[in-house]
Amino acid sequence: MCGLDAALRVVGGKWKPLILFFLGDGPKRYGALKRCVRGVSDKMLIQQLKELEAHHIVLRTDHQEIPPRVDYALTPFGESLVGALRPLCMWGEANTETIAEALDETGKA
Amino acid sequence: MCGLDAALRVVGGKWKPLILFFLGDGPKRYGALKRCVRGVSDKMLIQQLKELEAHHIVLRTDHQEIPPRVDYALTPFGESLVGALRPLCMWGEANTETIAEALDETGKA
Prior knowledge:
Chains A, B: It comes from Roseibium polysiphoniae. Chains A, B: Keywords: DNA-binding, Transcription, Transcription regulation. Chains A, B: This is Helix-turn-helix transcriptional regulator. Chains A, B: Residues 2-100 form the HTH hxlR-type domain. Chains A, B: InterPro entries: HTH_HxlR, WH-like_DNA-bd_sf, WH_DNA-bd_sf. Two copies of one chain form a homodimer. Chain A is mainly α. Chain A has one domain: Arc Repressor Mutant, subunit A, CATH 1.10.10.10. Chain A is 61% helix and 11% strand. Chain A contains six helices and three strands. Chain A has helices spanning 3-11, 16-23, 30-36, 42-54, 76-94, 96-105; strands at 28-29, 58-62, 70-74. At the A-B interface, helix 1, helix 2, helix 5 and helix 6 of A face helix 1, helix 2, helix 5 and helix 6 of B.
């Protein structure tokens, strides 16, 4: 498995990079995460979080409180992955206009 | 559009990062690229290349020769994107075993 292929196995797809990006700011409860990752369905977000948890990238903690408090946080492994994603995020920020123009041209904005 | 969201609009999905990664070594003809990106179908590779071309990330050049010679190369914009993907590639390389174990556990190897 080449490096990028391996990385994409655990972070590929449309939603996982965004979920990790927002968890990069610190632990979040499900509702807060759902509001951050605009457009994701409950079914998709739950499935992606389960996979990220199974791959030891995200840790789900049930704080055993009443009312119940459950949150999701990056593991150290997850934090190293977010670090590797940051340059892509900065590239996107630096090129947002060029990307928006390209997407407009292809009607994919 | 946040930076990562913007970047994922043009490089999201399973195949584009791999296509860009292999074009990072230099221009390639279609057949060579198909052999590099294992498992991709002709239909998918053609579609992804068309999108990458429309987004000014890849340049398709028909060298107007007999027999025909057509190749695909990164534009400067594409090269800057591949640069931003490299850390993710290095992260994957550094963590290939951990990833393989995690994928084994979830039967997704």
